[in-house]
Structures are given as C-alpha cells and as structure tokens.
Amino acid sequence: MGNEKDTELLPFVLQHVRQLVETQTGLAGNQHQKIVTPFPPAFNDFPDFQKDQLDFRDPQTDPIAAQSDTNEAFDFYRNTDYLYYDYSYGIKTEEPTLSQICNEFFLNSVPVNTDDTNFSTSFAEKKFAFLQKCRRQTVPQETPFIYTSYSPIKWEANRVVVTSEAVNQLKEKALAVYADVGSTNEHINFLLAQIKAASYSSIEYDFGFFDVVREWFDPVLLESRNWKFSTDSRVLYGANDPTFETKDVKLCYAQRFYVVKNYSGTSASPAPAQPATAQPPTVRDHRRKENGPNTGTARVRDHRTVERDRLLGRKVSSIQAGKNVPAHAQAVTAATAPQPPVPGFVWVPATDTVPGHWERVKAKPKPPVTPDTNSATYKVAAVLCRIIPRKPVANQPA
Question: What are the sequence ranges of the domains in the chain?
C-alpha cells in the first residue's frame, strides 16, 4: 500500500481526520460552526487541490501571468462559493451560493440600530469590497468572479501515525457511519465490502490546513441583530423551497480546509476467525448525541435524517449515472465476467458477502519509500464550515 489511489484506505483516513479535527477545535455541537467530511470517500463534492492551483496572485499586470492566475483564482472562488447542507456529510447544494446570499444581504437589508458604528462601518466596507473592490474577471474569457484567496498551508511537523488498535476502532466507526446511511445502493455496498476486507496494522499521512480568505464577507454581519429585510417575508435562502423551514435544514459554507497527502497503510496479517457466537462491537456514530441501550425498539428516523438520506441517495445515484467515474469498476453480478473495463484489472468472483467485481492488479510488494514532502496533490479530508442563519437574527426571539 502507499499511494493516493488506494481508495479503500480513504474511509479510515477520513474518520481519523474528523476525530483529530474535533479534538483540536473542540467544536463538536457548536451552533455556529460545523465540521463536515466528504461523502462518499472518493468522487465527492470536494475536489483535490493541486499545489500549483494555490499559487495564484492578485493583481497581475503581466498578460501571461494574468491569464493563468485569473483562471486559477476563478476556480478557487467557484469551489469555495458552494454551500453545503447542515449535516456531518458534505452534501453540496445546487443553489444558492454564498455570493448570492451576500448579494441578497447587501442589496436588500436595512439597518435596525444606526448607533452601532462598528456594524455600520464593517457593513459599508464589506459591501464596497463585494460590489466593487474584489470584482475580477478571467483573462481572456472575461468571466466575472469575486476574488477569494487562501492562507498559507500549515503542515504538521510530523506525520500522523495511527496504531493498530486505533485502526480497528476506525474500521468499526467507518462501517457504522456508512451503513447508517440506510441505503441498499450498490455503490454503498461495494464501499462497505471494501472496508470489511481492508486490514491495516498502521496508517500514516501528512496533515495540514488552510483558511479561505474573503475580504468581501464577514459572518458576524449576518448574525448581527442590527439589520433586517425591508420585507418581513424575505429570507437569505430557501424562499422558494418550503422544506428549509419545515425540516429545519440550514446551509453552511467552507471556512477552512483540512487536507492530507502521502497517506499510506501497512497491511496487517489476517486476523484469526472469530467464534460464531461473538457479539459485534458497540459503535458510536458521530452524528448522534447519545447512544442509549438497545431496547428492542426500532430507532425512529427524524425528519433531518430522512432528508439527509434522500440527499445522499440522490448523490450516489448521480455517481452511478456517470456524472462521476469511480477509479474501480462497478460491482458486477453476472455469472460470467465480461472483458476488463481497462487493462490492469482482474475479475474477483462473488462471495457470500461481496459481489463479483473488477479490481486493479496488485503490484508486487515494494520497499518502503520516504514520502515526498512536496507532493502536488492535497486531498480534502474535512472542512470547517460556518452555518448561515436563514432569517435575520433581528427577526428572531432573543
């Protein structure tokens, strides 16, 4: 094992990064901020960042540099302008975007307390930056966007090392998290089969983060009681979608990206067979505030969970429809294996628990290689998001 194409390793890495971030930030259960993880582990809504994609500068007077930098800056703005549903999984919305919400806020809000000079000054500065100062366009396409940058990436001095005992706990956690989606989708089943079959004695990765810098936006303004809309029925988002109100679904945007690179796992020796009477381990799901004793009563799925499963089901269906192409071939249940989808794959017959499927030919074991500290690809493993209020706080009870 040991390269970034080992997709069966990703569920373990993502689960560990989430635990690491929650410990570092202490934000679990915070009402204003949210930590989300990609779903599914691969081919999700969080694109990998290439090192050179984060090298753009502003402004650029040189025509050649401007052509490259404005396009990279546009891509970064577009990728960080998306919003996500307020769930532990990163489920991207189709609309609106953060800039659309800001446009609604800056153009249609009115002050409530004109004596608060701090609010009025910050509002004026951000409005000017949003409408004028940070407006850019790509070269030579002239595609408009709002300039958004990033803080320098901070990498942990030492590689993160996950020991055997912790790896086993991550495996149990990953199985519980993905199984709890409640989907019978073939893609989810394939993912669960990969996790069950995976066995590692240790996992390592390089861990870092960078912040999204928006000169044109301050979340404190949206959360202030010093403004309202001129029309009481107007909201920041969801005006044409009643599910936002009835199902209490909120949106959030990315503030910080936690990234990994050079992740690798050391294969473990096959574990001895467990007695048939062994009880499965008790696993805590990070989305539940508590895990009570098993009373024999089926767990009631609240409206947020039902809505989450609907959104996840739609996402996975889009993957199977070909909007995202997985690195592994889709599981096949035909009795006779077809021709390999691409060279380098072999057919693995079905078992009682895993359907027949194609797998990439495993390379012969290679001696350990020192990770390249200048690896160009940064994979998003978790995102620190800020939750956006749907209505002005001034219209809400104190």
Answer: 7-268+303-323+379-395
Note whether 195 and 171 are within 8 A (CB).
yes
Residue-wise burial string across 240-249, b where 16 or more C-beta atoms lie within 10 A, e elsewhere: eeeebeeeeb
Classify residue 169 as exposed, middle or buried by CB count within 10 Å of its CB (0-12, 13-18, 19+).
middle
* The pair of three-digit structure tokens given for residue 369, joined into one six-digit string: 């290689």
Cis peptide before 281 (omega within 30 of 0): no
Measured between alpha carbons, how far apart are the two ends of the chain, in Å?
A: 55
> What pairs with residue 265 in β-bridges?
203
Query: Shortest CA distance to 331 belongs to which of 353, 311, 314, 312?
Result: 353
Q: Inter-axis angle of helices 303-320 and 186-197, to 10 degrees?
A: 90
Tokens 């993912």, residue?
191
Tell me which residue of 151, 126, 142, 128 sits closest to 54, measured CA to CA. Answer: 151
Q: How far apart are CA 168 and CA 114, in angstroms?
A: 57
* CA 263/CA 7 separation, integer angstroms: 11
Kindly provide the b/e burial profile for residues 256-291, where b requires at least 16 CB atoms within 10 angstroms of the residue's own CB.
bbbbbbbbbbeeeeeeeeeeeeeeeeebeeeeeeee
Tens of each residue's pLDDT in the chain, 398 residues: 434 346 789 999 999 999 999 988 887 667 789 999 998 887 788 888 888 888 898 887 788 888 889 999 999 999 999 999 988 888 888 888 999 999 999 999 998 887 889 999 999 999 999 999 999 999 999 999 999 999 999 999 999 999 998 999 999 988 888 877 655 667 778 888 888 888 899 999 999 999 999 999 999 999 998 999 888 778 888 756 656 665 677 899 999 999 999 999 998 866 555 554 444 444 444 444 444 444 444 445 577 777 887 888 787 777 666 544 333 333 333 344 455 555 555 666 665 555 566 665 554 444 444 444 444 689 999 999 999 988 766 444 43
Tokens of 48: 């990998």
- pTM of the complete model: 0.77
Cα 235 from chain centroid?
Answer: 26
Structure tokens at 149: 């940058």
